[in-house]
Amino acid sequence: MSQPTPAGGKAVNSPARVLTASLVGTTIEFFDFYVYATAAVLVFPALFFPQGNDTAALLASFATFSIAFFARPFGALVFGHYGDKIGRKVTLIAALLTMGISTVIIGLLPTYDQIGLAAPLLLALCRFGQGFGLGGEWGGAVLLATENAPPGKKSWYGMFPQLGAPVGLFLSSGFFWLLLHYISTEDFMSWGWRLPFLASVLLIAIGLWVRLAITETPEFAEALKKKQAVKVPALEVFRNFKLSLFLGTFVALVTFVLFYICTAWLLSYNTKTLGMPLVDALLLQIYGSVIFGISIVIAGKLGDWMGRYIFLILVTLAIAVFSFFLAPLMTQGMTKLYIFVTIGMLLMGQTYGVIGAALAAPFPPAVRYTGSSLTFNFASIFGASLAPYAATWLQANHGMESVGYYLLASAVITLVCIIATGRKAV
C-alpha cells in the first residue's frame, strides 16, 4: 500500500502505479460498456424486445443503448461532487463498483419471453446504472493520470486512461468472438451471451485491488491544504465556467460520432445489412481496436510535441476529409471495409488520445473532476448516444452518403469550437 501524500504535495505514487491504476480502471469500465454495445446488436433485439420487425427491434435496442449516455452527466454530477470534495481515489472506487454491479445484473436478467415488458425495462435500468458509473469513472481516471504528470507530459499521461477504451473494446469483442467460434449459435443465444457480463465480477476484483493501492493526487492534496475546495463544485462550474463547459462539449463531439460509427453502427451494418457472419464482423472490430490502441499511444507523444490545440485542429480536418470517403468504402467487400476501419480507428485514436487532457485543462483542481466529467459526458449525449441510431436511420432512408455528411457536420462543429476555445485553454 502507498503512504499518504506528504505536506509538500509531492506524489508518492510511482508513475507505473498511477498509470496502471488509470488504465486498468477505464479498461474495466469500457469492457463493461462495450459488452453491452455488442450485445445490443447481436443479442438484445431478439431476446429483450417483441418480435415481428427486425429493424424496429434493433432501433429499440439502440434506444436502450443510448440511455447510458443520458445517465452519464448525472454520474458526472454525483461522483464529480464527491471527487472534488473528498478526493479522486474513493470516488473512483465507488464509480467502478456502480458500473460493475450493473453489468453483472444484466447477465442475470430474464428475457422478454420469460417476463414480457419487464425485461426491456430492467435492461434499461441496468443500462442507466452502467452510464451513471462510467460518468463518474472517466473524469477521475484522467485526473489521476494528469494530476500526477510531470511538466510537459500531460498528454502522455492523459493517454493512459484513454487507452482503456481500445483495450476494453478488444477484450469485449474478443470474448464474443471466442464464444461464437466455439459454441453453437443456439447455445450462444440461450446462455453464452451472459458470460461476458458475468465475467465482470473478476475484473471488478482486479480493479479494486489496483486502486486501493494508490494515494490522492498531489494537485488535489495541495488544493485541500490551501482550502481551495468549493461547497458545491457543480454550481461553481455552471456559474464561472459555462463557456468552457459548452465549448468542450462540442470539442469532443466528432470523437464520439466517429467512434460509434466505426464500432456499434458498423457492427450492425455488417451483420444486418450485408449479412456478414458474426465471427467475421467481430474480427473486424477486434482489428479496429488494435489500430485504435496503437494510434492513442502515438497521439500521447504527438500531443505533447505539437501542442494539443494544433494537433486537434489537424486531426479534425483529417476526419472531415475522411467523411467524403465513408460511402465509397462502405460497399460489399472485405478489403474496403478493412481500409475503412483502418483509417477511421487511426483517426479516432488521434483525437481520443488527447481529448482527456484537453477537456480537463480549462478547470482548476477544486472543480476539475466535475468540470471535465460533465464536459465529456455532455459530449457523449450529443455525439455517442445518437450516432448508432442516427446512422442506421440515415442509411436506411437517405443512403450511405448521408452518414458521411453526418460525420462531416460533426467535424465542422468540433473544428469551430476548438478554434473558439483557443490555444491556452486546450
Automatic annotation (TrEMBL):
SUPFAM superfamilies: MFS general substrate transporter. InterPro entries: MFS, MFS_dom, MFS_trans_sf. CDD domains: MFS_ShiA_like (cd17369). It is a multi-pass membrane protein. It is found in: Cell membrane. Keywords: Cell membrane, Membrane, Transmembrane, Transmembrane helix, Transport. The chain crosses the membrane at residues 56-79, 91-112, 163-183, 195-214, 245-269, 281-303, 309-330, 337-361, 373-391, 403-422. Residues 18-426 form the Major facilitator superfamily (MFS) profile domain. Pfam families: MFS_1 (PF07690). This is MHS family MFS transporter. It comes from Pseudogemmobacter faecipullorum.
